[in-house]
Amino acid sequence: MSLERVWSFASDAFAPAPDEVELVNPGLGGRGLAEFLARGLADLGVKVNRPVPEDWGWRLELVFEGRRFWMGCGAVSGEPGRFVVFLKTRRGLGGLLAAAVWRESFERLADAVESFLRQSPGVRELEVEGP
């Protein structure tokens, strides 16, 4: 079973950097958002690797409560000022066998991400998808 949570929101705080066009597909920036999330999650005790560019946006590798997760984020194509963040598990066979433990950690991390986004002054119109 895969766990996933998706947040979308409006913001004027994460304009794409000029060199970002070379790293991700046009119109799909989000490096500023990825760096913002990395700093905020690190302050909450989440181990966060440096943001990595993908063709669809930016990826963060996370370790929370000894379990591995990953987060993607970026601008929504064709909707200026709209962004998306998603959180997924990264687990091997051991994680599949301990699904309940993973779910609990995932839910705590997802709650922390959502709380962080809700408290961020540059984030507005936050919408959540997932259980």
Describe, in plain words, how this protein is organized in 3D:
The chain is α+β, with helices and mostly antiparallel strands and 131 residues long. It has one domain: TATA-Binding Protein, CATH 3.30.310. 30% of the residues lie in helices and 33% in strands. The protein is built from 3 helices and 7 strands; from the N terminus they run βαβββββααβ. The protein has helices at residues 31-43, 93-97, 99-119, and strands spanning 4-10, 47-48, 52-54, 57-64, 67-75, 82-89, 124-129. The chain is globular, with a radius of gyration of 14 Å. The two termini are 13 Å apart.
* Fraction of residues in H or I helices: 25-40%
Spatial shape: globular
CATH architectural type: 2-Layer Sandwich
Order of helices and strands: EHEEEEEHHE
> What value does the average pLDDT take?
86
Count of helical stretches = 3
Structural class label: alpha+beta
For the secondary structure, the number of strands is: 7
Low-confidence stretches: none
Beta-strand percent range: 25-35%
Structural domains: how many = 1
Sheet with the most strands? 7 strands, antiparallel
Using the coordinates above, name the CATH class.
Answer: Alpha Beta
As for the CATH topology, it is TATA-Binding Protein
Please summarize what this structure is.
The protein is α+β, with helices and mostly antiparallel strands and 131 residues long.
List the helices and strands and how they pair.
Elements: E1 4-10, H1 31-43, E2 47-48, E3 52-54, E4 57-64, E5 67-75, E6 82-89, H2 93-97, H3 99-119, E7 124-129
Features:
131 residues; alpha+beta; TATA-Binding Protein
